[in-house]
Amino acid sequence: MRTVIIGAGGHGKVVLEILRLAGRHNVVGFIDADPFRVGEHVSGVPVLGGVNLLPKLRRQDIEAAIIAIGDNRARVGYMEYVAGAGLELTNAVHPSAVVSPSAKLGRGVVVAAAAVIGVDAQVDDLAIINTSAVVDHECHVGLAAHICPGALLAGLVRVGGGALVGMGARILPCLTVGEHAIIGAGAVVVEDVPPDVTVMGVPAKQKA
User: Based on the structure, what is the number of domains in the chain?
Assistant: First the structure.
């Protein structure tokens, strides 16, 4: 499948490697907002230009795109450009990831190396399940949320859209993290987290 990656930064490199290892995609180029990067090559793949190129690329038989940008809100913003160009929003699932056959993945999802997605879990569009993260049974990860490397969601956890669960954080079973909340690296969450707040520490407390 002829594919472009939106975002030519570090996360874009990760997504490129995943797609290459998975073997289903022929990545023909990167799309990036920085005009000074046009013509540059990232891991051997050219930066073609900005999102205004997407309709033209679709006419040139590019079939799919994936948004490889770490900023959660930005990923949602780019989704409409992909849809408007008539491109399929594809997933990138690393071959070493373990995804339960009963888990449900949305579109534009990135599942990085050694990540685990458990039985009956649901991962919505544009979410990132990063390296060695665990999303256990019956969890729900919302639109464009990011579960960072080494984070662990115990069973039945709900993570709202746009939320970020930091590196190595732990969330106890059956808890809810609100939309656009931030869980600090290494935090242990022992109670529900409201939307739009930052919690840190062990146990996790709201940042003043």
Answer: 2
Question: What is the CATH number for 12?
Answer: 3.40.50.20
Task: Tell me the C-alpha to C-alpha distance, in Å, between residue 203 and each of 128, 169, 178, 181.
Answer: 25, 11, 17, 16
One domain, residues 130 and 179: yes
Q: What pLDDT digit, counting tens, does each position of 150-190 carry? A: 999 999 999 999 999 999 999 999 999 999 999 999 999 99
pTM above 0.85, yes or no: yes
End position of a domain, from candidates 65, 90, 115: 90
Which CATH number is 143's domain given?
A: 2.160.10.10
Identify each DSSP E strand in 32-107 by its residue range.
Answer: 41-42, 45-49, 64-67, 88-89, 92-93, 98-99, 104-105
How far is 54 from 156, CA to CA, in rounded Å? 38
Query: How many percent of the chain have pLDDT more than 70?
Result: 100
Active-site positions? Answer: 137
